[in-house]
Amino acid sequence: MPILIYGTEKYSQFRTLMPGIILSVVLAFAATFISDHHGGPTLLYALLFGMSLNSLIEGSSAKPGIEFTGRSILRIGVALLGARIGLDQISQLGLNSTLVLIFAVITTIIAGVLLARLFGFDKRFGLLTGGSTAICGASAALAISAAMPPSENRERTTLFAVVAVTTLSTLAMILYPPFALWLNLSPEESGFFIGGTIHDVAQVVGAGYSISPEAGDSATVAKLFRVALLVPITLFVTTIFKQTSQNKVKAYLPPLFLIGFIAFTGLRSAGLLSDQIISQLSELSRWCLVTAIAAVGLKTSLRDVLQVGHQALILVVVETLIIAGIIIASIFLMR
Asked: Is residue 192 part of a domain?
């Protein structure tokens, strides 16, 4: 009898979540279709589609499922990102390039926190925008936000970070390749510049291989190393934002999605994942993130995002210029 009651409760919870999950998945399919057939960033499409329907889901039965998708499905997607990164890829960078990327990421995040206070925002917003600019765009914004404690403005600031870094990443994909050629960078240097500066993985691949295959390979490796830094950065975020004495004890225990990220990275590095499985897990991760960002969009109105203000956009632009300046300077210094 207890088993039957437990099963009935779980089924009832599942039925409650299904409308929101299905709506988010439908928007993810729509965003992917538009992106595949007309170009453009899938995550941004999913976000905008969700925001366009925000007023229609207020008070609807879809809200519980949307909340679940924007939280739990998001964390599953972040965990699966680990399957895209192996230690063999990271080792191709070399010591000097590795140190430069670490320095660039840390400096950009610190600059984001300091500049956020200068522009009148709190350190959470600076950490969110700095981390998403420095590491891997929308994916980092979602992961860092998931590691932060709940707050009144978290959804709104996360959405703004996703919109801002995705837009700037798309612009960079168009502008950075001719800029690299104008600087007379070699294919490997161009790839390092592209991979060390552009926010989102898809735009890095597109920009790198638009220059040459060698530049594309170099860009991908540099970018994957930045993505790998998501683990220590998110652990750091988890630790510093724990406030109660009980949470301070738990602060040093990584969230489950980070444990999953590390586990998948370890499995890939150990050669326990075939190329087919890696491809499937990467695709599943992409679908989880697109579905989650659609759900996040459904929860927030465009009016809320615009309330962040133009100063926030300037902050993200400055952070983008900081990491680009560091990478360019390092290329010329390492010649």
From this structure: yes
H runs (alpha helix) in the chain: 2-38, 42-52, 63-68, 74-80, 87-91, 95-118, 123-134, 138-147, 154-182, 187-197, 201-211, 213-228, 230-240, 245-250, 256-269, 275-299, 302-306, 310-333
Q: Classify residue 289: in a domain, yes or no.
A: yes
Is 165 contained in some domain? yes
**How many distinct structural domains can be found in the chain?**
1
Q: How many other CB atoms are found less than 10 A from the CB of residue 210?
A: 16
Domain that holds residue 298: 14-333
Give the relative orientation of helices 213-228 and 201-211 as an angle to the nearest 10 degrees.
Answer: 160
State how far the Cα of 243 lies from the Cα of 98, in Å rounded to an integer: 33
In a domain, 325, yes or no: yes
Per-residue pLDDT tens listing for the chain (335 residues): 454 444 555 556 777 888 888 999 999 999 989 988 887 777 778 878 887 888 777 767 788 888 888 778 877 887 887 787 677 766 777 888 999 999 999 999 999 989 988 888 888 888 888 998 998 777 788 778 877 777 667 777 787 787 788 778 777 877 898 899 999 999 889 999 999 999 877 678 778 877 887 888 788 778 878 887 888 888 888 777 664 334 443 444 456 776 787 788 889 888 888 889 988 998 898 888 888 878 877 876 666 556 656 777 888 899 999 999 999 999 999 87
Q: Look up the pTM and report it.
A: 0.67
